[in-house]
Design brief:
9 strands; two-stranded antiparallel ribbon; five-stranded parallel beta sheet; alpha/beta
Length: 202
């Protein structure tokens, strides 16, 4: 993987909260930026590393920012958990608030981010996910681990919900008209940017 500074698209630029859309939560420890601010930051500094913390399936089929590295902060469990049932999350019992396939935390997230930036605690990283829920937590976890220049992209890649409850059509990187890509024209992903670790699906 690339040795340049890391952009975890879920992280943010130091513009403060002014002008940021309220689509998704903000990081508490990392800096928060909007998609347009993230894009401007990337244009100004080509050494920034962008990290897509969504699942590999989202990265491939929903689309992603060109040049972003996929290091998932969570995976989706393969077993269905009804509402009210207890399941293990990060090694501790949690009661399911919704009936669905639950999230499974990636225990290797910090390791692979550190490997990507060669343990450089001053590496610039922008993190993003679908709507900033996962990236805000992941960005804060990186700050707690000692990284100093972590930015969370507050609206995420797809943004929040519009009038239709199942379609994200209001904001985010995609709806800001910023460039992104899927797999290439012949159906391939660049192996440099895919997640190199094991898939956790328990």
């Amino acid at each position: 993987m690339r040795t340049k500074a890391t952009i975890l698209i879920a992280a943010g630029f130091i513009f403060g909260a002014a002008g940021l859309a309220a689509a998704g939560p903000m990081a508490k420890l990392a800096k928060n930026i909007s998609p347009r601010q993230a894009y401007a930051m990337m244009q100004q500094d080509p050494n920034i590393t962008v990290i897509d913390v969504r699942t590999p399936w989202e990265f491939q089929f929903v689309g992603h920012i060109k040049g972003a590295y996929n290091i998932p902060s969570n995976f989706v469990a393969t077993h269905f958990t009804p509402k009210g049932q207890t399941y293990l999350y990060n090694g501790r019992p949690v009661t399911a608030r919704k009936s669905r396939y639950q999230w499974v935390k990636n225990p290797d997230f910090l390791y692979y981010v550190g490997k990507l930036v060669q343990s450089n605690l001053n590496a610039k990283m922008i993190l993003y996910c679908r709507s900033s829920h996962r990236s805000s937590r992941a960005a804060d976890a990186l700050v707690k681990a000692g990284f100093t220049q972590v930015y969370n992209m507050t609206e995420g890649f797809e943004g929040g919900f519009g009038k239709h409850p199942y379609r994200r059509m209001t904001d985010g990187w995609q709806h800001a008209g910023l460039p992104y890509q899927y797999i290439d024209k012949i159906g391939n992903l660049d192996p440099e940017y895919i997640y190199p670790g094991p898939m956790i699906t328990r």
